[in-house]
Amino acid sequence: MVSMNVRQNGAAAGAVLSRGWLVLLLPLFLVACASPAPRPPMPPQPVPVPDPQVVEPLPVPSPPELEVIKESVPPPPPPSAPAALSLAQQSDVALATGDLRLAALHLERALRIAPRDADLWHRLAGVRLAQREFQQAERMAERSLQLRPGDRRLALENWRVIAQAREARGDSEGARRAWDEVRRLESALG
Amino acid sequence: MPARRTYRSTLFSRIWRGLAAVFWFLLGLLLVLSGLGAWSVYQLDREIQARFEGKRWALPARVFARPLELYVGRPLSIELLRMELDALNYREDGSGPGSFAIRGDTVTVTTRPFVFSDGPEPARAVHLRIQEGMVADLGGQDGQAVELMRVEPMVIGSIYPAHGEDRVLVTLAEVPPGLVAALLATEDRRFLTHRGVDPAGIARAAWANLRAGRTVQGGSTLTQQLVKNFYLTREQSLQRKVTEAVMAVLLEYRYSKQEILEAYLNEVFLGQSGARAIHGFGLAAEFYFQRPLRELELDQLALLVGLARGASYYDPRRFPERALARRNLVLDRMQREALARADDVAAAKEKPLRVTPRMPRGDSQFPAFLDLVRKQLRAEYREEDLRTEGLRIFTTLDPGLQLTLEREVVSGMDELVRARNIQQPLQVAAVLTDPLTGEVLAMLGDRDPRFLGFNRAVEAQRPIGSLVKPFVYLAALSDPSRYTLATLLDDGPLTIDMRSGPWSPQNFDRQFHGQVTAWEALVLSYNVATVRLSQQVGIAQVIRLLQTLGLERQPAALPSLALGALDLSPLEVATLYQALANGGYATRGRAIRDVLNADDQGLSHYSLELRGAVPDGAVQVLNHALHDTTTRGTARQVAQRLPGRILAGKTGTSNDRRDSWFAGFDDRHLLVVWVGLDDNQSTGLTGATGALPLWIRTMSSVPGGSLSLGYHPEVRMTQVDRRSGLRADTDSCPERLRLPFWRDSVPRTRAACDVDTDPVDAQDTGWSEQWFR
Fold first, then answer.
1. Residue A32 forms contact with B (CB below 8 Å)
2. Same domain membership, residue B166 and residue B142
3. For residue B355, is it within any domain?
4. Which residues of A touch B381 (CB under 8 A)?
5. Residue from the list A37, A38, A46 with its beta carbon closest to the beta carbon of B604
6. Do B544 and A56 lie within an 8 Å CB cutoff?
7. pTM of the model
8. Are residues B534 and B678 both part of a single domain?
9. Looking at the predicted structure, is the pLDDT value of residue B640 above 70?
């Protein structure tokens, strides 16, 4: 529309002085009527899109049991890139000011650098929980558990996120099992 | 006499009355005319304000590649870095922002500032050392280590307004002073003092034209030129000139010199490229020099200013001599008006034109990827907003990998066509993603990477053949109490009664292999055993798995699905394979990260999302077999050509060799390649002879990457007899396999050949060990 108005304005303005005085009023009224002042730009409106077909998920892998963890010796976690750590710190700063969006942006950027960093997934799970994206919070906490199965302290924190996310989604049975896991880890850790 | 007097007095009074009538008529006319004049001036004034106050221009959306992130440990080669900086038109061995230098394994880069969705990134000068395929050191000029930084992203396309006007807005503060000086010296010496029209300038121009006998000078002020371009048609007439002058005076009355100058700098027409009109100095700097305006030097600024008078007449690419003369004239005027120093002018006049020979493309250099971006955007944005709101769209495209993919696939295709003497127009499509984040890194939709048209990577739906098999096996392996890689499957003759009649699947080699392990059936891609397995697991279960991993359609539950009677695009295949490279988690496929409006406020963010999941223990077991496929199976060329790298993948060939597929991955990259003919005729190529060589070529140029077969606390390695799939603790069986087993699925029964003559410790010894004797 904007470009159309430009053309109309231009043509009409030329007409003002070229048609002679007696027919002046008509084009002037036309100008006045035909080209209202451009309104301030509207921000583009995102159109809601339907979610892709929802499919029944297969059973989500249950996080490993502790007994199994004891038997096996997991490899040490890969050293986190200092770059990813520094982004995690920036995300903490954003969280401290209540800017969840920025905190998530920093963590997503960090995860592009170190996508197998269990700690980053745990942090993002926490931000998603705060953003009330409960399914993502739960999945990301599970991904964190999957990536560093031997770290019980991290597991405890992840199970807390999972329990809260399940509670918020109304999955009381799932939440109960998650809280059991939390308690078990708490007593194991002393 | 009275009669005469009466007559005279009557005549006099008649004349008087007539004169009075004329007087009143003229007075009325004058009033009406001035009223009308005032009215029309009022209307012009309104028009001026309406356009000047609102959004002045329809601004195209700019589409950006992902920015290059630099940090210690980032996989990178000198070659890829150079590609990326070249694509950004950085000057090699130059200085200042937008330059770089390479000395051995050390690169010095000076970046340009940029605003991202998470905040501004300042310009920086850094040194980086690249060793063993990664950034080993990163430090600033002051010697301080730099933890993390971004190079500004390259523009990979624009979405233009319908009228084709393109511009990059600049503010007066961003404009080099030399540009304004050159502009005023050439176009309007008294700009800062006149009030819209410059009578002295008009008189001078008229005198000069009179003396010359033709038009040699214009008397229009910058304000008049702006009015002409901004509000009026190109028609030449006296009336229009008067309108122009009135509007110029009104514009000056309403707005400051700064505002008018800034509008002029952005409005002026400075070039044409096809249907795309280059407006304003911001875009002209990129169009002629591929450089931001603020980086231009005096000679370049003078050239651009020279174009204001006639961008096609002085086009430096078509008429370089004319353009050079014009540029030097501008420089001379600057010197005459004392707006530039004599030695600066002399130095600038020595310089050649320095215009980049090739016109930068108005459309995208990467049409297939941009097509994907537009499809994704159209779901959420109105086309009109994309064309006019000046949106900034940040995508996931990795320019270095995109150019690598193009180079390798194009030359690989040439080689393929030549070696096999293929006469038909063989086509190709490829998708490269980061399976851990779901981001599409590169895409090819046609054998000609610049071809804008049918985008096979997204739109071509072709039978995927054996690419579906991993999902049949994954469905089985997800139930470790029933299926392991050591489970024996029957690869003997099979006939299934279907509604359309009996169906007897055949193997590729037209032979039956009897009892084989699931491992062998997958690694060597046996059809009959796979069909039997899918019948046991249930086709419905396989479809459910595919949908969990991101398949957004409902295929018919036919037995032939297990052999890939399923038409998918390369992008859809990539979506399905991502979960295999990502611990069983499907990720949301994305080509866009953020959309910002013209004021850098975020409109949309496409976040990292984990979708459905399948058990990672089963995925790890499957990946082991897919890795073996690349060392001993149908894709064993991979290990021969890329020794030392741990990769996993699967070949696919549809009936009558119409479609040749390969899908495979390392730790950070998933690449799907399709080769075939648009008319769906046979190519004579299998997955291993068509798509696979292209895949290998590309992956060999992608830095990094060995797949981490990973560590899963519930997966254990055990030796089994290759024939029976039973445990083989000793080395007395003719051939042993070392296979992963998830949960308590390790075979308990020992093979008949496994005799305790020479007991061998069957303990796990780790993944890196040789799996075969």
1. yes
2. no
3. no
4. 44, 46-47
5. A46
6. yes
7. 0.82
8. yes
9. yes
CATH number reported for the structural domain that contains residue B206 in this entry: 1.10.3810.10
The pair of three-digit structure tokens given for residue B509, joined into one six-digit string: 């080699």
What average pLDDT does the segment B551-576 reach? 95
Residue type at position B549: L
Whether residues B759 and B733 fall in one domain: yes
Structure tokens, B637: 């060329």
pLDDT interval class at B704 (50, 70, 90): low
The whole-angstrom separation of Cα B475 and Cα B559 is 15
Tally of structural domains, chain B: 4
Let me know if residue B173 belongs to a domain: yes
Cα B441 from chain centroid (whole Å) = 9
A residues 77-106 near B, CB within 8 Å?
Answer: 81-83, 86-87, 101-102, 104-106
Which pLDDT value is given to residue B448?
93
- Where residue B100 sits, what CATH number does that domain have? 3.30.2060.10
Distances (CA, A) of B458 to B168, B454, B571, B577, B685: 31, 9, 6, 16, 22
Structure confidence at residue B142 as a pLDDT band (50, 70, 90): confident
Q: Is B467 part of a structural domain of the chain?
A: yes
Nearest residue in B to A1, CA atom: B384
Q: How far is CA B336 from the centre of its chain?
A: 47
What is the Cα–Cα distance from B652 to B610, expressed in whole angstroms?
27
Of the residues B84, B152, B187, B262, which is catalytic?
A: B187
Put simply, the answer to whether B235 touches A142 (Cβ < 8 Å) is no
CB contact under 8 A, B58 and A25: no
Q: Report residue B671: phi and psi, to 5°.
A: -125, 125
Please check the confidence at residue A63 and state whether its pLDDT lies above 90. Answer: no
Taken as a whole, chain A contains a residue count of: 190
A to B CB pairs, distance under 8 Å: 201
Q: Are A16 and B384 inside 8 Å of each other by CB?
A: no
pLDDT in tens, B358-367: 777 766 789 9
Chain B neighbours among A 52-71 (CB < 8 Å)? 52-53, 55-61, 64, 68-69, 71
ipTM summary value: 0.84
For B280-313, the pLDDT digits (tens) are 999 999 999 988 999 899 999 999 999 998 999 9
B187 classed as catalytic: yes
Both B468 and B424 in one domain: the answer is yes
pLDDT tens figures, B385-400:
888 889 999 999 999 9
Q: Tell me the three state secondary structure of residue B135.
A: strand
Chain A hits for B478, CB-CB cut-off 8 Å, are 58
A4 contacts on B by Cβ (under 8 Å):
none
Instruction: Decide if B466 is catalytic.
Output: yes
Q: Distance from B684 to chain A by nearest Cα, in Å?
A: 37
Domain range for B719 is 713-773
> B478 and B594 share a domain?
yes
**B551 and B621 fall within a common domain:** yes
Residue of chain B whose alpha carbon sits nearest to that of A94: B118
Q: Are residues B438 and B491 in the same domain?
A: yes
Q: Residue B442's beta-bridge partner residues?
A: B432
Contacts of B41 in chain A (CB under 8 A): none
d(CA A181, CA A175): 10
Confidence of residue B230 (pLDDT cuts 50, 70, 90): confident
Find out whether B369 and B403 touch, Cβ atoms under 8 Å. no
Q: Is the pLDDT reported for residue A36 higher than 60?
A: no
Task: Answer whether residue B755 shows pLDDT above 60.
Answer: yes
User: Quick check: is B359 in a domain?
Assistant: no
A-interface mutation test, from B150, B439, B714, most A Cβ less than 10 A away: B714
pLDDT tens per residue across span A91-110: 999 999 999 999 999 999 99
Q: A130 at the B interface (CB within 8 A)?
A: no
Q: What is the mean pLDDT of residues B524-530?
A: 96
pLDDT tier at A150, thresholds 50, 70, 90 = confident
B572 CB-near residues (< 8 Å, 6+ apart): B461, B550, B551, B552
For helices B78-87 and B399-420, give the axis angle rounded to 10 degrees.
110
**Mutate: best of A105, A133, A151, partner B, most B CBs <10 A:** A105
